[in-house]
Design goal:
Bound molecules: S-adenosylmethionine
Strand content: 15-25%
Number of domains: 1
Number of helices: 10
Strand order of the largest sheet: 3-2-1-4-5-7-6
CATH topology: Rossmann fold
Distance between the termini: 32 Å
Number of strands: 7
Shape: globular
Radius of gyration: 16 Å
Largest sheet: 7 strands, mixed
Structural class: alpha/beta
CATH superfamily: Vaccinia Virus protein VP39
Helix content: 40-55%
Amino acid sequence: MKKLPQKSSFIQNMFSEVPSTYELLNHIMTLGFDIMWRKRAARIAAATNGNRWADMCTGTGETAVYLKQFADKETEIYGVDFSLPMMSEATKKQQTHRIHFVASDIKALPFSDKSFDLVTISFATRNLNVSKDSLMQSFREFYRVLKPGGYFINLETSQPPFIFFRKGFHLYLKLFVKLLGSRISGSKIAYAYLAKSMTLFYSAEELADIIRQTGFEEVTFQRLLFGVAAIHHSKKI
Ligand SMILES: C[S@@+](CC[C@H](N)C(=O)[O-])C[C@H]1O[C@@H](n2cnc3c(N)ncnc32)[C@H](O)[C@@H]1O
């Protein structure tokens, strides 16, 4: 089982309930590791060429802010999301000044073909996986807007390869993430969904295959913290 039977509208409504506690909860639930992972992904992204970048499903703009930190001054950074409440948290931050926020479903982006040098996404690929087809449609859309030679960097939770860690991770999700998230955010649905979607998500190898199937090449990944998360790196040739 590799998908949850949910629609995009369910995801969109769910993220309207959590913006004010979203970042704090991520830091608590990952013991601060998400900050290091975002910075690492942003550094990898910033080492690529070009100066027109888009952070897809940008949410409260946390990764977009790190991208801006590591980018040259002339780099234009876009943040795209279909949740206005999440992006309105982003625009409240001083550091998001000069990031262009665009409200859109990433499956139908309002950008022309070959218009970006870099596409990033963090902790949102699971949400695009309402079905494998839907996930592939999203990746194809990223591919369409990238220029040849452009890079796609994906940071997402993953599955630890060793069964002992995997079982422990799933137990942690069930006991800690689901209960604490529901309690602090007040949204039982959002954090039950988060725990379940993380448990059911692809392994790093499976996700690499899906990225490859949508046209990207030179797909590589690095596991983070025994494989509970991974950064995938790929290129449009
Ligand atoms: C878990 S949050 C991740 C936010 C941010 N990238 C981060 O690292 O914290 C998922 C975000 O994806 C957005 N999202 C999910 N599906 C989307 C879609 N089809 N189009 C645009 N945004 C989407 C949600 O609105 C939400 O803000």
